[in-house]
Design goal:
The complex is a heterodimer of chains A (180) and B (251).
Chain A: H1 10-14, H2 18-29, H3 32-49, H4 59-72, H5 75-81, E1 83-85, H6 93-96, H7 103-110, H8 113-122, H9 125-136, H10 141-148, H11 152-170, E2 177-179
Antiparallel strand pairs in A: 1-2
Helix pairs in contact in A: 2-3, 2-4, 3-4, 4-10, 8-11, 9-11, 10-11
Chain B: H1 10-14, H2 20-32, H3 34-54, H4 61-125, E1 132-133, H5 137-143, E2 162-172, E3 175-184, E4 187-195, H6 198-203, E5 208-213, E6 216-223, E7 226-232, H7 236-250
Antiparallel strand pairs in B: 1-2, 2-3, 3-4, 4-7, 5-6, 6-7
Helix pairs in contact in B: 2-3
Classes of the chains: A mainly alpha (180), B alpha+beta (251).
Chain lengths: 180, 251
């Protein structure tokens, strides 16, 4: 769905993404009602702005970006954005990080789906969203960069930290965060 | 020990973000390096379990219907509005067709009249403008027998101020017709009679019409399957008088 055919209507492009958008929305908001409001507002905004959508660009990234931006301007989103991870987003740092087989990786093999869900809830939203876009939505780094409006290097850096944070959460270690 | 060159790229490898060459290099390395292969396996397991765990929330059927209704409701008017430019284009196209059609018809009628005007002018300039010279309608009309695929009636002009000079066969777009020459005062009036064809009828739709070509007054009418054209530099009233006489004769 990377190319937009002008003969294809909004409904045909947007409705197949409904389940994914809702899942992403509830992971962000952690609340069913807020997730529904977020998805509803996303569809309204996307429909209104569909005329300005550039044919040939990625529709999925475009809609996910609308949803994420809408979330960030919501009350929950604003509260979340005030809490950022301690680590910097040095794009080069992840390239020298070396991890070895550790007890947590062995733990991971035995982790149940519920345990991973609980761990995902505990990681900061900035990491949770990049994990969801990469591993659940299976977006490419470029699509994620388009959705989050950040460089690809930042996507790689966040992914590295997000996976590290997830492993920590699975071990019961809550990632450190600070209030901005 | 994990390889410092390849191990940092394991996530990109599992996310299919390495170039084709690097992918091949990584696969070759993983076949040889047990440590990196083990690391890659654990990272892959993390990806898989994250994918499964991440697909957690499902929208309710009621909410889905609400969004579908929202999208469809706003989409339909948008589609309806799309018809406006389409309709506008059709109107413009129709107007263009009508305009071109009218221009063509006007062009065609001017072409026919110009051809007849040339015949009229050529006859006036000729020392023998008619092939049958007679003021007697009973002489002129029979002369056309066998020369034309139709016949016509000529009026009695005694005491009308009009005088029949004679006639000849004329051709309009390869169709034979009668050209009759009349005098009224010092003026000459050429009357052309042809079979009324659809092509002619289309460009002269009015039963009676008046126009001017090269400053000549022209009157045209259709009657009995024939098309009449009267050309002259005489006044329109003088031309109309002769036309009425011819119409009464053919009625």
């Amino acid at each position: 769905m990377s190319a937009h055919d002008s003969s294809v209507g909004f409904e045909e492009l947007a409705m197949p993404l409904f389940d994914s958008l809702y899942n992403f929305a509830q992971w962000l908001t952690q609340n069913r009602d807020e997730a529904e409001d977020l998805v509803q507002e996303t569809y309204a905004k996307a429909l209104k702005g569909f005329g300005s959508f550039q044919p040939g660009t990625n529709f999925r990234a475009w809609v996910f970006r609308i949803l994420r931006n809408t979330f960030l301007t919501s009350r929950t989103g604003l509260a979340v954005s005030r809490t950022v991870p301690l680590e910097s987003e040095d794009e080069s740092e992840q390239t020298v990080a070396v991890s070895h087989e550790t007890p947590e990786s062995i733990l991971l093999v035995q982790a149940s789906q519920q345990q991973v869900q609980a761990a995902l809830e505990r990681v900061p939203v900035v990491y949770r969203e990049v994990l969801l876009l990469c591993d659940v939505e299976e977006m490419s780094y470029q699509e994620i960069a388009d959705t989050l409006a950040v460089p690809i290097g930042t996507v790689m850096s966040r992914l590295y930290r997000a996976r590290k944070a997830l492993r920590s959460a699975l071990e019961g270690k809550v990632p450190e965060a600070k209030h901005a | 020990m994990p390889d410092d060159r390849w191990q940092p790229k394991l996530d990109q490898y599992l996310d299919s973000e390495l170039s084709a060459g690097e992918m091949r290099g990584m696969e070759a390395h993983l076949r040889e390096c047990v440590s990196c292969a083990s690391d890659a396996l654990h990272r892959l397991q993390l990806k898989r379990v994250t994918r499964l765990a991440g697909q957690r929330y499902t929208p309710s059927a009621e909410f889905r219907r609400r969004i579908e209704k929202q999208v469809a409701a706003k989409n339909r008017p948008a589609h309806r509005w799309l018809w406006i430019p389409v309709l506008a284009s059709l109107v413009v196209l129709l107007a263009a067709v009508v305009t071109v059609g009218r221009w063509y018809e006007r062009s065609r009628s001017q072409q026919v009249l110009a051809e007849l005007a040339d015949l009229h002018v050529a006859d006036l300039a000729s020392p023998t403008p008619v092939d049958v010279a007679s003021s007697d309608r009973h002489t002129v009309k029979p002369w056309f027998q066998g020369k034309l695929p139709f016949t016509f009636d000529l009026p009695e002009l005694e005491g009308t101020g009009y005088k029949l000079v004679g006639g000849r066969v004329a051709y309009l777009e390869h169709e034979p017709g009668a050209e009759l020459l009349f005098d009224v005062g010092a003026h000459h009036i050429s009357v052309f009679i042809f079979r009324d064809r659809p092509e002619i009828e289309r460009v002269f739709p009015a039963h009676d019409s008046r126009s001017r070509v090269l400053s000549f007054h022209v009157e045209s009418w259709a009657a009995g399957g024939l098309r009449y054209f009267a050309f002259s530099d005489a006044s329109p009233e003088a031309i109309e008088g002769l036309c009425r006489l011819l119409q009464q004769a053919g009625a």
